[in-house]
Amino acid sequence: MPPARRTESTQRLAGLVAGLLFFAAACALGNQPAAPVDEELRHYLKTAIETSDSFVDRFDAEVWLLSKQEPMGRFFDDPQQRMDMLRRIHRAASSAGLQPEVVLAVIEVESRFDRFAVSSAGAQGMMQVMPFWKNEIGHPDDNLTDIDTNLRYGCAILKHYLNKANGRLMDALARYNGSYGQYWYPRRVMNAWQDNWR
Questions:
Q1: Does domain 100-198 have CATH number 3.30.70.330?
Q2: pLDDT per residue over 7-51, tens digit each?
Q3: Which of 7, 78, 98, 114 is the most buried (most CB within 10 A)?
Q4: Catalytic positions, please?
Q5: How far apart, in whole angstroms, are the C-alpha atoms of residue 135 and residue 121?
Q6: Would you tell me how many other CB atoms lie within 10 Å of the CB of residue 84?
Q7: pLDDT at position 32, please?
Q8: CA distances to 133, 139, 169 from 164, in Å
């Protein structure tokens, strides 16, 4: 098939998949869709796909972003905000060599996607990064409530612990939480992953 036809065919397939996913989601909730496609969501999805530099191609981006819309809707009402957050998380996780779905589960457990969350121990932001890390790496002025900064820190830290644990995710998660040797925290993350993000 010539390249032009392949692109056109891929775009048609992506559009069909998008429509089917919207329809299936609506039916699963017991509602028929009011219209075939939510135009506002389509606009934000298109923008997110075109600016998502961590995806192999636009079709992969569309399928992944659509599949995470429903669970992300529990935390963000605005479709644009959902798409933007998913794109940022996918980029940071992919850049660190992590599965974006695991990072989504960590964020759900750590902060429920609250960028201004502060723990009793002083950990900050969506991935609950301890401020001492800023001095450790020589960036004392970094803002851990900045979404991209927090994601870069959190993903780098989690990847470090994953390497240290020789790829054993449960051990890496326990180290990330500071509860190494206990598994209540990794179980919470894995439950969030299994229930909402995988």
A1: no
A2: 444 444 444 444 444 434 433 333 333 334 566 655 554 554 455
A3: 98
A4: 110
A5: 17
A6: 17
A7: 35
A8: 18, 24, 10
Nearest-Å Rg of the Cα atoms of the chain is: 18
Residues pairing with 118 in the sheet: 124
Q: Kindly state the helix (H) or strand (E) to which residue 60 belongs, with its residue range.
A: helix 58-67
For residue 148, list its beta bridge partners: none
Pair 65, 45: CB distance under 8 Å: yes
pTM, rounded to two decimals:
0.74
Please name the residues in contact with 155: beta carbons below 8 A apart, sequence gap of 6 or more: 92, 93, 95, 96, 98, 103, 127
Query: Could you state, in order of their start, the residue ranges of all structural domains in the chain?
Result: 100-198
